[in-house]
Fold these 3 entries.
Entry 1:
Amino acid sequence: MRIHLVNPSDLSFGTAVITPRWLYVLAAATPAQYGDPLIVDETLEQIDPETVKPGDVVGIGIHTGNVLRGYKVGQMARERGATVVYGGGGVGLMGSLADAALARDGHVIGIIPRFMTEVEWQHPGLAALEVVEDMRER
């Protein structure tokens, strides 16, 4: 199993961009038994689907500007047998990302802060939902 952390983008500039900090924070927080995560910033280079194998875990960060590409990466990951991990929300961009992967018979795991479950923002169709205390722990 390999962990892939992806910042999706339809545009690859190849140079002179600032890779989002969350990629490095999550990579550093990955337990040693899972090895070094593969960090993919698609503003530099697109993810190679051949690197995603069944049983891998793919973490995708999305925002308004990259959401459509994020959906495509999630669908590709599921088609290749990987698990998709994301923020756990059931509405907005997070919910749409989960729906896209689930539409491919996906195994999707969410990680969500407790306050979001108290207002019922979690996605109802996930394979697993890990509830953490706050955004920092998430």
Note: The beta strands are 3-7, 38-41, 57-60, 83-86, 108-113, 128-132.
Entry 2:
Amino acid sequence: MRLTTFLGLLLLTTYALCNTIEVTWNVGVHPNNTINVGDTIMWITTDGLQHTVTSDDRTLLVSPTIQAGTSVDRFQHTFTDTGTFNYFCTVHGALLMSGTVIVETPGGGNQTNITALPILPVLECVDQNGDGSITAFFGYYNPNEENVTIPLGALNNVAGGDLPVETFEAGRQTRGFSATGDAASNITWAITSGGVQNMAVATNRSRSCSVSDVAPPGEVIPLLNCTVVQGNSYTAFLSYINTGFEPIELPDGESNQVFFVSPTENVVGFPIITSFAPGEGVAFNVTMPLNTVMTWQVINDYTGTSRSVRVTSNSPSCSPCSQPVV
């Protein structure tokens, strides 16, 4: 059956990622912030004095009086248009308290350390060293248009091997680094970015570098963006990453299917998307009862292994900035 039997299905276009930036707003400060459209600035005062956040035009930003230790110690505003916006405190004047917010379109400024889309580590191949150890060669796919830096540590680490890279260039990069470890154990590179953890695992049974020194191109990774609960049902918004440079076709059937499990029935369906363009793309959304668990599974031809994403009504909720823009 097709997913249209589950209340409704809709192709979407794009998703926004927004941030909230906290700014200390005390006497003597002159903050200057560069943000993206859709981002929010939150001004917080801590010096015990009364302040306002007022734009020069006295129209865009018109805050009440804020003061630390009271119920109103902060003020926030979400910027929806590009431009340069100046503001000041009407109590102390611009000489003592003023600031500027520069609002750009996403991708228009420095995106270092900001990951709108998750980075995918890729195992290229493995060499058997003949001394009880293996050397794994790793690459990665960065679907963002800009380079991204993820410092070594909890968000970027290798278990059982050497240290990975920290700066990820845009696009598919092959053989970024190698890691040597015990052949009896796994070498796992884990990256957490864009709110998603992805891993590449090397074992002594992984593809030999004598066969190919880079991973075959193209793999579809299903992703969950977020969910919206409405009454007795919820809607899941899904996307995907195609790690290759060419479109991938995954027809209905065992290679591309959706499983719905509820207390009363188990149903197998098929998504309406069968062609996956390179990079990140919107897949579909589906609305279902709160007690239903959905799993979207794809099987990539060149590996024969499955990739899947599991969704429940308790999965991450859509914020105003993670919901789709139709």
Note: The domain at 18-104 is CATH 2.60.40.420 (Immunoglobulin-like).
Entry 3:
Amino acid sequence: MIEQIPDADSVYRFVAISQMEDPSAKRPNLSMFAPRQGEDGLSVDWSARTTPEETLIRVGRTYKFGTTLFKNPREFEVYGLPVGAVRGMGLTVSHNPILHEPEEPGKPNNPAHALIQATSEVEFQSKRKQLRDLAA
């Protein structure tokens, strides 16, 4: 069931440690805050439906891109983004659960899945730094 995400909640974005701009400061690269080509928005998890630890568990149940090898959750960190602040930037945040019946190997069900979206790719690109700066 799709639900409305309140402004007071947060969403979680997992980031590969290898994609850190400054690993000592734990500062993610800007590329981690933009949707990949062909995606409808930036994939995140809603805090009311999961925890950072559960997000990492799901990462470990997901295949690496283009393979049948599982990702190593120890190679990722989770960052929180306050929904109200994201919406205050003019972006939308919407619940978008991923549910397969039966669940597909390498594509775990995710009832917490949500999307951060912009009206255009250009708009999203212009807000990546603000998103990254919100991440905690």
Note: The mean pLDDT is 93.
